[in-house]
Design goal:
Blueprint lengths: L1 H35 L3 E4 L9 E7 L8 E6 L12 E2 L11 E9 L7 E7 L2 E2 L1 E6 L2 E2 L4 E2 L5 E4 L9 E9 L5 H8 L4 E2 L2 E2 L3 E7 L3 E8 L4 E8 L6 E8 L4 E5 L2 E5 L2 E7 L14 E8 L5 E9 L4 E4 L3 E4 L2 E2 L2 E6 L12 H13 L4 E4 L6 H11 L1 E5 L10 H15 L5 E5 L13 H5 L6 E2 L4 E2 L2 E2 L19 E2 L4 E3 L10 H10 L5 E5 L6 E3 L5 E3 L18 H9 L3 E3 L11 E6 L10 E8 L6 E8 L9 E5 L11 E7 L5 E8 L3 H10 L10 E5 L2 E6 L2 E6 L5 E6 L2 E3 L1 E7 L6 E8 L3 E8 L2 E2 L10 E2 L2 E7 L4 E8 L3 E2 L4 E6 L4 E10 L12 E8 L17 E3 L4 E6 L5 E5 L5 E4 L22 E4 L23 E2 L6 E9 L1
Parallel strand pairs: 27-28, 27-36, 28-29, 29-30, 30-31, 33-34, 35-36
Antiparallel strand pairs: 1-15, 2-3, 2-5, 4-13, 5-12, 6-11, 6-15, 7-14, 8-9, 8-10, 8-12, 16-17, 17-21, 18-19, 18-22, 20-21, 22-23, 24-25, 25-26, 32-33, 37-38, 39-40, 40-43, 41-42, 41-44, 44-45, 46-47, 47-48, 48-49, 49-50, 51-59, 52-53, 53-56, 54-55, 56-57, 57-68, 58-67, 59-66, 60-61, 60-63, ...
Helix pairs in contact: 3-4
EC number: 3.2.1.23
InterPro entries: Bact_Beta-galactosidase, Beta-gal/glucu_dom_sf, Gal_mutarotase_sf_dom, Galactose-bd-like_sf, GH, GH-type_carb-bd, Glyco_hydro_2, Glyco_hydro_2_cat
Family: Belongs to the glycosyl hydrolase 2 family.
Length: about 950
């Protein structure tokens, strides 16, 4: 019995194993069959700048030329140490039409013999001749920024080694392409700079698809088939993870190797930059027996775009405002060769600046950049490459438009096509977009009044009156506020944006541009080169370093807009707010309020609590409240931080609660118990010398200015101040008043006649400076001077200081970035600390924040010295700017538009500061905040700046 049971058990095992093998073979066969119906891809180069493959290479001229060696691909050959560097503006005699020869051996599987094999080039600069195993793969391709492919099925040796050879001419044989690409305002590179790969497809296959997925779920798809391919189409809608959402019922018609398929998806989420919902449309090609021949998946987003003349641009029924920037495909150490990781980094920075749009200036980007715009959410204007006139010739232009639209047609992020840049348009190409674009997106001409749009570039602020002959056009400048060096971008943006936001037919605009294009010069020991002022236009530095305008834009373009206000003793807790999202209710956003203290020279959070935001729909206005709590009296400032529905910070607004005078008093009270010593006063060689504690101060007995400071026998190089800026009067008297606890040195200037002589009324007033030396070594200063009802002069006081002794500074005030009069937003009021640097924004150094400049809302500053302990200055007066040294003038600013005025001296305390212009504009043409006049209500009341120096 036992033996029989064992035999039966073994039979069951054998039976199970037999079934397992049968099912396994069936499953394996099914899987193999399934895999054979997919498109296979094999890279011949690497995938991006960080993942490359070595090819053999020969360069005809320049660095490392006239010899066979090797090169990493994809790459720009200049960045690999070959050839010549050229910027598009270089004169003809500096250009060399160098060429590169590439060779690479590769193998393909035997089982590809029954497939169609194509070689795909995502981008080659500029003319490319391709041979496989010694035979031409097809006609020479012209145009640097466009994907092209060849069917090389008949040229391959299957299961064996193959040879690919590519000749790349840096310049094109087509002169219109040279003008568009090689003479434009950007760096000119050469090489196979985007990936190259093989595609293996079933003989009967889908060539490509063009999809129009509307916000209501309607889907129209053109499915283009290979030659002599028949059958039927089946479609499924999948979510982005690949899970089934819906089997789609199709209405299909076929003609000329193309199916047109219509269907509707139910209960879908639409795509927009705030909620970039994506799906996959799975398309299966079936033969007449219902067997799968080929299957592809295309990522899509459901959205509807309308450009309504005289009204605006609507996406899913909502009229939108572009908060956009122009962006080139560029990285300093690899040129135009980039990566998906870099695309993600750039888009995340744009989103962090609260942008919702990007213009592809001035050529189509890498595919992965558009993929990231789809997935993270940015509106896109896609553009073919032209540069002023003459335009692309029609024959090559038609090919380029076709290549652009066919590659990019299915990206939901793309709202508009741009047929070139700044008068480089060939209008014969305008109707070609509709041939290839199933979505029939509108075509624009950047910097032109064209059809329904006005995309004016670099207009002065008064252009926002929009009272010219094109008031019925949808107005959105595709370039404005040119960001040369530290100018433009954030400077002036508040004035422009508030007008653009409230203009009924404005669709926003695009800043120029995203990043400084400083290239690594392999021919100059690796220096970063911006070609003078041609490529120093970024909001961020070449490696993504954030300049001050980054944070100004972040605040001004915040979708949660908080009306400006200050906090005084009668604060009622009310903040006025506006929802400037297009699709998001504030019910899905959050805000926290922090009460903070700056005692002991650092930020301490006293209390943190949520703020109840009103559930405002887009474009609605309302209020929220921050109620005072018992801890309010201990706080120095209030910080409000808003978060979007994904938990990402929108912006942090800061409000000082206590005045500079009160905070300074609190801090100085802590030092009042310092060691005190008897004051010593002497007059020597025209000087007044006062010794106090460990300090000795030397003042001029003719002017009252501080000439020298010595502490512990070391000279602190602060001197020659205060000089009252703009005061040309002489000092009338200098008095010394000695008391037991302090000594005063008071300088009074000659009086001014304030009234015109014809009035016969004489009003005498005098500026004055008053020093007070305390027993503990503290040094008070009060400067009193007359203001004017309106003036262009910088009002305040200044000192000399040896810049070579400066190591850094720590301060309480707005920071960490410097400000200009027309760019004060984007800072935060708290304690900051910056090390000394000599960065020229966008030109050299690239260390941010810049150390030198004007800093707003000063409460105190501690200057760090290389040779001594440094010293600290407490400011008792409100609304004072600190001027810290003088930035060096950038070399490429011949008209001084982005080199604001700095008064004499090195360290100043002032009430007004200059604005900054742009490459094409003076500061005062960028709006009211850029005006060089400042207004005071009452010129009879003197201005005062009160400081305490602690050495």
């Amino acid at each position: 019995m036992k033996i029989k049971q064992q035999i039966n058990f073994k039979r069951q095992i054998v039976s199970f194993l037999s079934l397992f093998i049968i099912y396994s073979l069936f499953f394996l066969g099914s899987t193999t069959a399934q895999n054979t119906q997919q498109t296979e891809k094999r890279y011949l180069t690497g995938t991006d700048k960080d993942n490359t493959v070595t090819w053999d290479f020969y360069c005809s001229a320049g660095q490392n030329s006239k010899k066979w060696t090797s090169i990493e691909t994809p790459s720009c050959w200049e960045l690999q140490g070959f050839g010549h560097y050229n910027y598009g503006h270089d004169p003809f005699e500096k250009r060399v039409n160098e060429y590169g020869l590439y060779k690479h051996k590769f193998s393909v599987p035997k089982d590809w013999k029954n497939k169609t094999v194509k070689i795909v080039f995502e981008g080659v600069m500029t003319d490319a001749e391709v041979k496989v195993n010694g035979k031409l793969a097809g006609p020479i391709h012209q145009g640097a920024f466009y994907e092209f492919k060849y069917d090389i099925t008949h040229l391959l040796k299957y299961g064996n080694e193959n040879l690919i050879e590519v000749k790349v001419n840096k310049a094109s044989a087509n002169e219109s392409i040279n003008h568009a690409e090689r003479k434009a305002d950007f760096w000119v590179f050469g090489g196979i700079y985007r990936p190259v790969y093989l595609e293996a497809l079933p003989k009967q296959h889908i060539e490509r698809v063009a999809i129009d997925a509307k916000a209501d779920g309607q889907i129209i798809t053109d499915v283009f088939l290979s030659k002599k391919t028949g059958g039927n189409i089946k479609a499924r809608l999948l979510d982005i993870q690949g899970d089934l959402v819906q089997d789609l019922n199709l209405e299909a018609s076929k003609s000329d190797q193309k199916f047109r398929v219509k269907t509707k998806a139910n209960n879908i989420n639409t795509w927009n930059p705030e909620f970039p919902h994506l799906y996959q449309l799975e398309l299966s090609l079936l033969n007449k027996k219902g067997q799968l021949q080929h299957q592809i998946k295309q990522r899509i987003g459901f959205r509807t775009v309308e450009l309504l003349e005289g009204d605006g641009i609507y996406v899913n029924g909502e009229r939108i405002k572009f908060k956009g920037v122009n962006r080139h495909s560029f990285y300093p150490s690899s040129g135009r060769t980039t990566s998906k990781a870099l695309s993600i980094e750039h888009v995340e920075m744009m989103k962090d600046m609260n942008m919702n749009a990007v213009r592809m200036s001035h050529y189509p980007p890498d595919v992965h950049f558009l993929d990231v715009c789809d997935s993270l959410g940015l509106f896109v204007i896609d553009e073919v490459c032209t540069w002023h006139s003459p335009a692309l010739d029609t024959e090559v232009g038609e090919k380029i438009v076709k290549e652009t639209v066919i590659r990019d047609v299915n990206h939901p992020s793309i709202l508009l096509w741009a047929n070139g840049n700044e008068s480089g348009w060939n209008t014969e190409l305008d109707d070609d977009y509709a041939i290839w674009d199933i979505q029939q997106r509108e075509v624009i001409h950047p910097w032109n009044i064209f059809n329904k749009t006005n995309t004016l570039h670099y207009f002065h602020f008064h252009g926002l009156a929009n009272d010219g002959p094109a008031t019925d056009k949808v107005f959105f400048p595709t370039e404005f506020l040119h960001g040369l060096y530290d100018g433009g971008h954030g400077a002036g943006l508040e004035d422009y944006w508030e007008n653009m936001w409230n203009m009924p037919n404005s669709a926003g605009g695009f800043l120029w541009d995203f990043a400084d294009e400083a290239v690594v010069r392999t021919d100059k020991n690796g220096v970063l080169d911006t070609d003078g002022n041609h490529a120093s236009d970024g909001i961020v530095g070449p490696y993504g370093e954030k300049e001050a305008s980054y944070f100004t834009i972040k605040e001004i373009w915040s979708p949660i807009y908080i009306e400006d206000r200050t906090i005084k003793s009668d604060f009622n807790g009310i903040f006025r707010i506006e929802n400037r999202y297009h699709y998001t209710s504030l019910a899905s956003c959050k805000m926290t309020a922090k009460l903070v203290s700056f005692q002991e020279n650092k930020l301490t959070v006293i209390e943190e609590k949520p703020v109840e935001l009103p559930p405002l729909s887009p474009n609605q206005k309302g209020i929220f409240r921050v109620n005072k709590t018992p801890l309010w009296e201990k706080a120095d400032a209030l910080h409000l931080t808003a978060y979007d529905p994904y938990g990402k910070e929108i912006f942090t607004w800061s409000y000082a609660i206590e005045s500079p005078k009160i905070i300074s008093k609190k801090l100085l009270d802590q030092t009042s118990k310092q060691t005190k010593s008897a004051l010593q006063l002497k007059h020597e060689k025209g000087n007044i010398i006062v010794a106090s504690n460990e300090c000795e101060f030397t003042f001029s007995n003719k002017t009252g200015v501080l000439k020298k400071v010595i502490k512990n026998n070391q000279i602190i190089p602060l001197s020659n101040g205060p000089v009252i800026l703009g005061n040309k009067n002489k000092v009338d008297t200098v008095k010394v008043i000695q008391q037991d606890n302090y000594i005063d040195i008071i300088a009074v200037f000659e009086p001014k006649n304030k009234m015109p002589e014809w009035t016969k009324i004489v009003v005498l007033s005098s500026d004055s400076i008053k020093w007070r030396v305390h027993q503990n070594g503290l040094l008070d200063l009060e400067a009193e001077f007359k203001g004017k009802k309106r003036t262009k002069d910088v009002l305040g006081i200044t000192f000399n200081y040896d810049e070579g002794d400066v190591a850094g500074m720590k301060w309480l005030g707005d920071g960490p970035y410097r400000v200009w009069r027309n760019r004060t937003k984007g800072t935060c009021f708290q304690v900051w600390e910056n090390d000394y640097n000599n960065t020229i924004t966008g030109e050299s150094g690239f260390v941010y924040p810049e150390f030198k400049g004007y800093f707003s809302h000063l409460y105190w500053v501690e200057l760090k010295s290389k040779s001594t302990e440094g010293f600290k200055v407490y400011c008792h007066s409100p609304d004072v700017f600190l001027r810290m040294l003088t930035p060096e003038k950038p070399s490429g600013d011949p008209k001084g538009r982005v080199t604001p005025f700095f008064p004499k001296g090195d360290i100043s305390f002032v009430y007004n500061i200059p604005g900054i212009g742009t490459k094409f504009q003076e500061s005062n043409s960028t709006g009211p905040h850029g005006n060089d006049e400042i207004y005071y209500g009452n010129s009879d009341d003197p201005l005062k700046i009160a400081l305490t120096f602690q050495f």
